[in-house]
Amino acid sequence: MRFLITAALTTLAAGSALAGEASISIEIPRLSVSEYHKPYVAFWVENADGSKATTLAVWYDAKQKDHEGNKYLKDIRQWWRRVGRELTLPADGLSSPTRGPGTHQIVFDASAKPLGELPPGSYQLVVEAAREVGGREVLRVPFQWPPQAPTTADAKGADEISALTLKLTP
Amino acid sequence: MTKFIKLALLASAALSMLSASAEAHRTWLLPSATVLSGKDAWVTVDAAISNDLFYFEHHPLALDNLAVLAPDGKTVTPENIAKGKFRSSFDLKLEQPGTYKISVLNQGVFANYKLNGETKRWRGKPEQIDSEIPAAATDVKISEMQGRVEAFVTSGKPSEETLKPSGVGLELVPVTHPNNLVAGEKATFRLVLDGQPAAGVAVAVVPGGIRYRDKLNESKVTTDESGSFSVTWPGPGMYWINASVQDDKSKIKNATRRAGYAATLEVLPQ
């Protein structure tokens, strides 16, 4: 729940409670496997042609001794290649701990960084989950920014992410 | 190891690399990973001469001429160098973020000549030619070999410093970063010979995992006038690319020169 609070504080700190927001809901499946580790998950926004990417959040083991958890960041493979390797982690407002099975929600203020800096246009939300000794899955949800009306878009996954929903409020 | 055996190994490595068609053996370096994150990452690298890629089944690659360039352009000393029956290996600590180039450059001189009606073979170093090949020898054919084998690994953000050619023999100059290769995408590289564009050179691209398929699945591409060639990776995995040239540009008098290049490149899934 830590991250929810952080996200909420960010929203408040950014100003008006009436400001638009982007809410991402992700369902991580409960898996019957012999060795389970909570997945590393990266959330980022790409413009339609994929030429620019901005990280929204990364869930990983940031608290391990000597940043041991950073060793597995490259397993969030697409994110690592697109933008992850350019970052220095942990980073305030980006990194937070991994989450277990269940539905989790993160909320971003439309007027704050990084969404507030997005030029109007076509984008996609990309979410990639990679699990130690497990699999990897990438889901994409296209969207228009800024939203003209409340919109909801979703994507279903098969293995590592059950469902992904993006709710935009102008 | 005696000097003779060392030379013989060097020669066999150089030969097997340079005459891919006559002798099927392939020379390669195989890093345990090519894309790494986090501080103080390590890779371990296997080095071997084999038929199938990437299996240890013939001979270890001698590491006497191993050189590792760190992202800052300085050399790094490999650790735990070991030689087994079928493979050599070493470890590398990636202390700096960026791209490391791992190279083995084997150079040697080979000669055939006739003396008193008998055909003789010789191998050695350029400075030994005058003293070791008898003045009475006839039909002297000298060839210089330059065989280069490389691999690239990157910790964190890829860097460019180590990708510059050294100017010796046949080398690969990446246009697409060699640790940024993804299945289905096109990658472009340049081949240079002594630092100059190597035009019209055939480059063979072979995916690893040969043991578990019937076809070699080798693809061939020829470099253009700027020495450039492109490969669209059919799938993820480790690939071996190989090229060789023969010319008269040896610095050794009356010698032909054969220069070979091989690299192991990792292609990641989308």
UniProtKB/TrEMBL annotation, chain A:
UniProt xrefs under Pfam families = DUF2271 (PF10029)
Question: Domain of life of the organism in this record?
Answer: Bacteria
Q: Alphabetically list the UniProt keywords.
A: Signal
Q: Give the matching InterPro entries.
A: DUF2271
Q: What is this protein called?
A: DUF2271 domain-containing protein
Which segment of the chain is annotated as a signal peptide? 1-19
Automatic annotation (TrEMBL), chain B:
Concerning InterPro entries, the annotation shows: CarboxyPept-like_regulatory, DUF4198
Q: Where is the signal peptide?
A: 1-22
The answer to whether UniProt assigns keyword Signal to this entry is yes
| Signal recorded as keyword | yes
For this UniProt record, the keywords arranged alphabetically read as follows: Signal
| Entries under SUPFAM superfamilies matching the protein | Carboxypeptidase regulatory domain-like
Name recorded for this polypeptide: Putative GH25 family protein
Origin species: Rhodopseudomonas rhenobacensis
